[in-house]
Amino acid sequence: MRLDLEEQEQLANLKAFWINYGRWILLGLVVVLFLYGGYWLYERQQVQKSLEASKIYSEMVVDLSQNDLPKAIQKTELLQQQFTATPYAAMAGLATANLAYLASNTKESLAQLEWVEGKAKSESFQVIARLRMVAMLIDQKDEKSFAKANDLLNKKPVVGFEALQLERRGDWFYVQDKNPEAKKQYIQAWDVMALQRAKQAGLKEVDPMMKDLERRNPAENQRLLKAKIDSLGGFE
Q1: Contacts for 44 with CB less than 8 Å, ≥ 6 apart
Q2: Exposure check for the chain: N or C terminus, fewer CB within 10 A?
């Protein structure tokens, strides 16, 4: 008899709890299911967009291989307008900028690089575009271009690209016949590269003997920088 009373009391408490909180529990379940469904739909849309962007990018690569700049620009603009969030938009911009440069279409090349530098989702793509723009602006050798290149070089360096940014700053000085400043930037770029390699090897600092060896026998990716330093009197 006592057990029956306890069961009845438990049932009464359960009913009261359900009356008070049941609708909120159901509402919570509906919200969870709605959010899950929305997330699933979003992920599916993203995958579909990426596949579509990949297809357009592949077609653009064919245009590039055929040196068909107008078609490459058309597909690149499509990617930039409708698939901005995908990496294909930035990749297309960089590739089309290169083809435009080879075709002596400096205006189009700079326009593509500006888009990537300003709107690409990847910071790496942004800095690659930025430093390519700097090189092109320096080649134009006029005050307006120098000023714009200077603004780009004053932006915060991106990890992994510090040495290249220093080298571009050296180029900026060099074309203005500011050789001491250029040499200083080139040597700083060299030292940053040496330190990065040392860290990759698990070292905290550059070994003096290795430093001297690298200066006398530069790796392939160091040769151009070494030539620039040598043209200004070498490391001494």
Answers
A1: none
A2: C
- Residue 113 to residue 98: CA distance in whole angstroms: 9
Of 168, 167, 162, 164, whose CA–CA distance to 149 is shortest? Answer: 168
pLDDT score recorded for residue 181: 96
End position of a domain, from candidates 106, 141, 176:
141
Q: How far apart are CA 228 and CA 214, in angstroms?
A: 15
Same domain, 95 and 173: no
- Give the per-residue pLDDT at 47: 63
pLDDT at residue 107, rounded to an integer? 94
**Based on the domain organization, do 130 and 184 belong to the same domain?**
no
* Domain total of the chain: 2
Query: Against a cut of 0.90, is the pTM above it?
Result: no
Sign of CA dihedral 49, 54, 59, 61: positive
Instruction: Indicate the residue among 141, 175, 201 that finishes a domain.
Output: 141
List the chain residues with pLDDT less than 70.
Answer: 1-47, 201
Distances in Å between the Cα of 110 and the Cα atoms of 40, 97, 125 are 39, 7, 15
Q: Are 82 and 59 in contact (CB under 8 A)?
A: no
Domain shared by 129 and 162, yes or no:
no
CB 182 within 8 A of CB 170: yes
Is-contact 116 93, C-beta < 8 A? yes
Q: What is the pLDDT of residues 50-61, one digit of tens each?
A: 788 888 988 988
Q: Which domain holds residue 206?
A: 156-236
- For residues 183 and 170, the answer to whether their CB atoms sit within 8 Å is yes
Distance CA 220, CA 218 (A): 7
